[in-house]
Amino acid sequence: MEFAPYLIAGVLAVVGVTALAPRLGVAAPLILVLLGVAVSFLPAVSAVEVDPEWILAGVLPPLLYSASVSMPAMDFRRDLKAISGLSVVLVVISAVVLGFLFHLLIPGIGLATGIALGAIISPTDAVATSIVKKAGVSPRVVTVLEGESLLNDASALVLLRSAIAATAATVSVGQVAGDFVYAVAVAVAIGFVVGKANLWLRSRVREATSNTAISFVVPFIAFLPSEHLGASGLVAVVTAGIVTGLGAPKHLSPQDRIAEKANWRTVELLLESGVFLLMGLEVFGLVEEVREEHGSLWTAAGLALMAAVVVIALRSVFVAVLLWLMKRSNRRNPEVREKLSAVTEKLERGELPTIEERGQGGQGARRRKRRARRGPGGPGGAGVPGLGGPGGLAGARGGPGAEPLAADDPRFLSRMARVQTFLTRRIADIDYLAQEPLGRREGVLLVWAGMRGVVTLAAAQSLPADTPHRALLILIAFFVAAGTLLVQGGTLPWVVRRLDLTVDTSTESDERLALLGELSRVASEVIDAPGLVRPDGTPYAPETIERVRQEIAHDDLVDREATEADEQHRQYRELRLAVLAAQREELLHVRDHGTYSSGAMDETLKVLDASQISVEMHAPAAER
Predict the structure, then answer these.
(1) Distance in angstroms (rounded) separating the CA atoms of residues 36 and 282
(2) Burial (CB count within 10 angstroms: exposed 0-12, middle 13-18, buried 19+), residue 531
C-alpha cells in the first residue's frame, strides 16, 4: 500500500497536466517531463529507477497496439515505402554512423557498444504525431509519422539486441541481417494469427465489457511468443493491431468498438503520460550516478548535443533523397492513370482491353517478350494483374491456351470483379498521391518532427550492467530524448504555422457527404428489392417501409425514437438494421477500392455506428 499514494498522485498529475496543456499551448508530454525533472530534485524525493522491462514489455505493447488499431490501413499501405525507409533504413544508417562516432569519442567504448547506443537514440517518438494532428496538417504527413513511430521502435530494438550480442562474440553483417529478417518475418506471422484469432473470438462474445477485456491481453498474447522465439514482439503487436483494426467494422458490433475505443483511450492516456512523467523523475538518479563516475555532466551533455545534431542532419539528407525518389517514381502516374481509366471504362462496357492496353505501353512490350521466352504457360497481365494470360480475363473469354468461358460464368465474373477492384484501387492511389503530395515544406516538417522519447530512455536502461560507462551512456540517451522533446516538440506547432501546412477540412466534409450519398443509394436498393420480407417470411407493413424510405430520402441516418405500437416498432427495427448492415457492407466495399479518404470513411462509419446503437437501444431489454 506504500505505492498507492504515489500512484494516485501520478494519475492526478497526468489528468491535471492534460487539462491544462491546451490552455498553455504546450504539448502535455513536454510539461510532464519538466514536472518530473523538477520533482526528482526535491530533497524529500529519493532517486527513482524503473526496471526497463516494465517499459519494453509492459507499457510499449499496449501503446503500440492501441495506435496500430486506429491506424488507417489504407493510408499505411499507400505510404509503406516511405514508412519502411524511415523506420528501417534510416534507423540502421543512424545507428551505424553514431556508433562510429561514439567509438571514436568515448574511451573504452567498442564499436558494437557504440552501435548499440546509436540504435537506442535512432527511433523517433509518437508524441510528434499527436502534436501535428492537433495542428491540422495533412493526413498523409500524420500517417507517415505515425507509421514510422510504430515500426522504428521494433527495428531499433532488434538492432540493439544484435549489437549487444556482438559485444560478447563476433557477429557478421550477414548474421545481423539474417536475424533482422527472421525477427520481422516470424513476428508478422504471429501477429497476423493473433489478430485473426482476436477477431474470431471477440465476434462471439456479446458483452461489450468482456469483449474489451479480451482486447487488453491481445498485445501481450502477440508479444510474448514472438519474444520467446527470438522475434520482435513489437512488430507482432503492431501487426495484430493493424489486422484487428482492419477487420473490426466487419466482425465486431458498434457497441464493442465504441466501448473498446473509449477504454483504450483512457489506458493510452495513463500509460503514455505516466512514462513521460517517470522519464523526468529518473533524471536525478542518473545525474548523481554520472557525477560519481565522471565528476561532470558536460561530457554527457556535449556528446548528447553532438548526437542530436547528427541524427537531425542524417534525417534531413535521408528525407530529401526519399522525397526525390518518390517524386521521380510518381512522374508517370498521370499517364498510368489515363490508361487505367481507359481499361476500366472498357470493362464496364463489357469489353476486354487490347493487348497494348493490358501491357501499358513499352513496359508491357518488354514483359510480353519475357513471357514469350518463358512459353505460353507463363504468367499473364503485364501492366494490370489479372488481365492477360490463361488465369486472367483474356484467358477467361477464350485467350490462347485457355478454355473459353461464358460472360455469365461465375469464374469470369469473379475475375472481372477482382480486376475492377484492382483498377479502382490503383486509380484512387494515384489520385491520393496527387492530391496530398509530399513537397519541400512537408519534408521540413518530417525532419523536425523526428524527436526522441520514451523508447530511447527505456532501451538505454536495458544495456547490460557490465557495459563500460553505462551510466554515462544512459544519461546521453536521456539528454538526447529530453532535449529533442523540449526543443523540437516545443517549436513544432510554430514550425507548422510558419510552413503554412494547415489543411482545409471542407474537402473531407464534402467527401463524407458524397460517401453518405452512396450508402443512401444502397439503402434504397434494399428497400426497393422485390423479395423484401421479414426474417420469418412475412412482408413488412407498408407504413414501415415508407417510414424508412423517407429517412433515406432525406439522408437521415439518425434513428428517431419510436412511439409506434410494439409490433410496428419491431418491424421498423428489423428493417432499419437490415438497411444499416447493407450500408456498412457497401462502406467496406468502398474502402477496399480506396476511392475516399480514411478520414471520410471513419466519420461515416461513426454515423452508421451511432444509428445502429440508437436502433438497438430502443429495443426491449429481452431482445438486446
Answers:
(1) 8
(2) exposed
As a three-state string, the secondary structure of 336-349 is HHHHHHHHHHHHHC
Q: Is the pLDDT of residue 193 over 90?
A: yes
Residues 6+ away with beta carbon under 8 Å from 290: 297, 300, 471, 472, 475
pLDDT of residue 372: 47
Interatomic CA distance for residues 211 and 205, integer angstroms? 6
Q: Where are the alpha helices (DSSP H) in 25-138?
A: 28-40, 52-53, 60-69, 73-78, 80-84, 90-105, 111-121, 127-135
Contact (CB, 8 A) for 107 and 303: no
The set of residues, in sequence order, having a beta carbon less than 8 Å from that of 90 and lying 6+ positions away, is: 122, 152, 314, 315, 318
CA–CA gap between residue 245 and residue 247 (Å, rounded): 6
Q: What is the pLDDT of residues 589-611, one digit of tens each?
A: 888 888 888 888 888 888 888 88
- 3-class secondary structure, 527: helix
CA distance 348 to 363: 25
Residue 402 has pLDDT above 80, yes or no: no
Quote the CA–CA distance of 450 and 149 in Å, as a whole number. Answer: 9
- Please, which contacts does 99-104 make with residues 24 or more away whose CB atoms are closer than 8 Å? 99/163, 101/306, 101/307, 101/310, 102/303, 102/307
Q: What is the mean pLDDT of residues 262-281?
A: 88
Distances (CA, A) of 277 to 10, 122, 448: 8, 21, 23
- 118, 102 contact by CB (below 8 A): yes
- Whether the Cβ atoms of residue 242 and residue 147 lie closer than 8 Å to each other: no
Instruction: Assess contact for 238 and 68: CB atoms under 8 A.
Output: yes
